[in-house]
Amino acid sequence: MAQTLFIVGVNHQTAPVAVRERLAYAESDIAQALVRLKQKVASVAEAAILSTCNRVEVVGVAADPEKASDEIAAFLAADRGVDRSAFADALYRMQGREAARHLFRVGASLDSMVVGEPQILGQLKLAYAQAAQSGTVGLVLHRAFHKAFSTAKRIRKNTLIGHGAVSVGSAAVALASQIFDKFSDKTVMLIGAGRMAELTARQLKTIGIESLIITSRTFDNAVTLARDLGGTAVPFDNYKPYLRIADVVIGSVSVTKPIFGPEEFEAIIKERRYKPMFLIDLGVPRNFDERLNSIGNVYLYDIDDLGQVIDKTRAEREKEADKAEEIVEQELEAFERWMAGLDLVPTIKDIRYSIERLRELELGRNRGWIASLEPSERERVESLTRSLTNKLLHRILLGLRQGTNSADDNAYAAEVARRLLCGEFDLDESEFEAIEEDDDGGI
User: Fold this and answer.
1) Are residues 20 and 154 in the same domain?
2) Taking Cα atoms as reference points, which of 251, 263, 268, 231 lies closest to residue 306?
3) What percent of the chain is modeled with pLDDT above 70?
4) Same domain for 93 and 182?
5) 323 phi and psi, to 5 degrees?
6) What is the residue range of 191's domain?
7) Catalytic residue numbers?
8) 431 within domain boundaries
9) Number of C-beta neighbours around residue 18 at 10 A
10) 53 compared with 403, residue with greater pLDDT
11) Which end of the chain, N or C, is less packed with Cβ atoms under 10 Å?
12) Cα separations in angstroms, 393 against 18, 342, 400, 417
């Protein structure tokens, strides 16, 4: 039965961060999650999980994509311990061409909060690598992901979509500018040393912030980034005392619950004599308890808040996005032709076997005079017959693969070719001989 590409998931357009964080997977958890998915969802032939701050998606392949989508929705609810009703309205399901288009658009950052941002392609490559390592990637996902990668590369090369794109970091700077009049006397604390946090810290450095404190679960990472940005690294188990001197705090660590809540933060803001604190939460799940916003002079913004700032600057990139969409459609056509060819694989195998069988049959019928030839001449006969059958097979397969504009016509032509060449019209060997004798008399 034909296999179909499908996608099930939620993203920043369909679900708020409060929903996305409950379904999100830490990078280190995805491999085992894929193993569990394959064990519990038998209808899925191939699968990959893409979990970022903006989306949680399962990219899969199944003979019955609707059934598989339902089972994956149930799997996500059970695996993440979330009632299905909590995300049912936000869940989207795509299959076939629509799913492939979505995957290509995601890789090209056309479906991102920041159109043109480069991070998503790396995240997509990581999702593919994790699935490949887990043994859940097959022929279709291998082709689909690599086509998404090449599409993104072509778009980067042929459009300006990535030039001057507004980033999450620049959006954070815009919000910070609404809170602070100047930045030269401000201190930034970076909790976590991930790529997005680093980019945000660099943006803040460009507006004059000079004092930077960096902590990470991996202290060496904090030291490396601190050296690069001219900051100070502190151990992760001893960073909280430094919060009282931090004016801007960027949270970007992988957590299952907020790293601190309003109770302990009340004491921190009191120690600061209620000087304003700007908190940027880049984590999904969120690093900071949303109740921190209720504390006086504490300004907390999560990834969705930053997205609203970005939306205001989106218009300038729409022209380049239109060019990118055209490239996606072109690449989509090529991928669909390849997918259609997969349906012909069993037919091609049957035809190849049947033509080779006919070749061997003819050689057998003429074995007497062939045996009388010199070895070199017998090899030439073997080579000649193999060459003829290969050319015949090539023409048949080329015609089947090119086909028509109708999938039904393609399937019908393939089936007729298979039945003719594989003897399913009840043409036995004696009838082949009768046909040949008729041919000798001419038509």
Assistant:
1) yes
2) 251
3) 86
4) no
5) -65, -40
6) 168-312
7) 53
8) yes
9) 14
10) 53
11) C
12) 57, 17, 11, 11
